[in-house]
């Protein structure tokens, strides 16, 4: 899973760079518009280590932001799963708030909270949170009738059991959504850094943009791509392991 | 070869041709066709002459059909020249020098700002900055990766300071750290943001001063009009007509006698700024474009360009000299 993610990224990245180079040579553009391979490798030699640590810095905020949003999404999703007035209210609120572009709120967050760690964390969590919430709400609000009926009929249904059944039956979907939200959390952190932070890879990309240096941007994108692929690969592997554990009865064979 | 693979090849070939056509499409550059002029920033008083050239009919009188387009954070006139999206543009000296280092075919037709509007603002109740040594111990804002960082580094090196002698903070889009007095000395464009901040603080009963690097021997060139070497070679008459019209418009725009007309034209393009601010911005723009009556608008200060290139080498913004003077084709000082 981990290596497949990295291969996939490398194929996409190489295709992208090849496309750019094709345009460059087909239309005779200078290195100022699209860098050639020599410049790209030279920039990578100078900048890659720095960008690697910048991405790690960004990733630390991403992981934390994603954890916060997963916790929030499950908390709200579990409360909002009921067809009671509270559940309906939470669902309506979630659907309406997520329609508002978080990036538009980012400048206000930076003005109020400064350009430190908290602003980055908040924006990353917010960007990652809403799509997660919508998926969790959808999963938690859909009864698994065949199974739940038995527990309801026997009077043994509790809310914890209900949540467990729905999570278990939708484990594949949940794992995919959580792994996918890693990209959103990373994008959120980078957007936050790009707008106003003073560290992280988004901030480095902003500097490269000031200087119209596409080679640096491509190297930064490479660092981001590799690290996010590894992170997503790890999340998927962990998801697989959890699935295997859940599906295997204690001391027994896989179903 | 089966039908499926033939269709695949046809699609790929089509996409490639489309791609090449898209990026190689040159914008027309001969009389009678629309010329595209890409500014560096949004429409505001800072580009008064460019606005007047368009709305005041200067281009039309010269027989040119010019589309004056706003710039912005993601816009780069030199790249657009190369991609064929623009015929003329406004770029800062550091952009020109960086482009030359990477092989771009760009030439400088005129230097619009004789004095760089990039300056630093500070409150009058703080000790005045008379000498570079007065920067010691100050909390200074810079945009990392921006011109102001390069300029400030040069000033600090000139003063013999190290990073321990001052406190440097990263600057972002809003002025909050300066307004909250977290940063003492804040970079601004003297004729646009400088005026706005001055007004805001005056409303709070605070007075400000400006610290101009040029007063301490650092003349880092700002905005200039550029075109491609090919355009100059193939259409010298169009370039000449364009520059004559543009510089006449700038002469008109900075003449105090034309102030009401100029402000009315700017207002059409820059609706978000208050009238009194626009007026003050125009007043602040005049000495940057035409510092004295004898200065010919657009004249290229070769010494300042050479200094800008030297600074960029010292600051490791470029690796090797680019001989920028060979690309300065407009009238020189």
UniProtKB/TrEMBL annotation, chain A:
Subcellular location: Cell membrane
Keywords recorded for this protein, A-Z: Cell membrane, Membrane, Transmembrane, Transmembrane helix, Transport
Any Gene Ontology CC annotation: plasma membrane
Keyword Membrane attributed: yes
Pfam families, alphabetized: BPD_transp_1 (PF00528)
Transmembrane segments: 7-27, 55-80, 92-112, 118-141, 174-197, 217-235
Keyword Membrane in annotation: yes
Main location: membrane
Domain ABC transmembrane type-1: 74-230
InterPro entries in alphabetical order: MetI-like, MetI-like_sf
Any one GO biological process: transmembrane transport
Membrane topology: Multi-pass membrane protein
Protein name: ABC transporter permease subunit
Organism listed in the record: Desulfobacter latus
From TrEMBL, chain B:
Coiled-coil intervals, chain numbering: none
Span of domain SsuA/THI5-like: 44-255
Signal peptide feature range: 1-31
Catalytic activity: N(6)-(pyridoxal phosphate)-L-lysyl-[4-amino-5-hydroxymethyl-2-methylpyrimidine phosphate synthase] + L-histidyl-[4-amino-5-hydroxymethyl-2-methylpyrimidine phosphate synthase] + 2 Fe(3+) + 4 H2O = L-lysyl-[4-amino-5-hydroxymethyl-2-methylpyrimidine phosphate synthase] + (2S)-2-amino-5-hydroxy-4-oxopentanoyl-[4-amino-5-hydroxymethyl-2-methylpyrimidine phosphate synthase] + 4-amino-2-methyl-5-(phosphooxymethyl)pyrimidine + 3-oxopropanoate + 2 Fe(2+) + 2 H(+)
GO MF annotations in UniProt: metal ion binding; transferase activity
Alphabetized Gene3D superfamilies for the sequence: Periplasmic binding protein-like II
Alphabetized SUPFAM superfamilies for the sequence: Periplasmic binding protein-like II
GO biological process, one term: thiamine biosynthetic process
Entry-linked InterPro entries: NMT1/THI5, SsuA/THI5
Keywords on record: Iron, Metal-binding, Pyridoxal phosphate, Signal, Thiamine biosynthesis, Transferase
Record pathway: Cofactor biosynthesis; thiamine diphosphate biosynthesis
Sequence similarity: Belongs to the NMT1/THI5 family.
Summary of subunit composition and partner proteins: Homodimer.
Task of the protein: Responsible for the formation of the pyrimidine heterocycle in the thiamine biosynthesis pathway. Catalyzes the formation of hydroxymethylpyrimidine phosphate (HMP-P) from histidine and pyridoxal phosphate (PLP). The protein uses PLP and the active site histidine to form HMP-P, generating an inactive enzyme. The enzyme can only undergo a single turnover, which suggests it is a suicide enzyme.
Name of the protein in its database record: Thiamine pyrimidine synthase
Protein species of origin: Desulfobacter latus
Lineage of producing organism: Bacteria, Pseudomonadati, Thermodesulfobacteriota, Desulfobacteria, Desulfobacterales
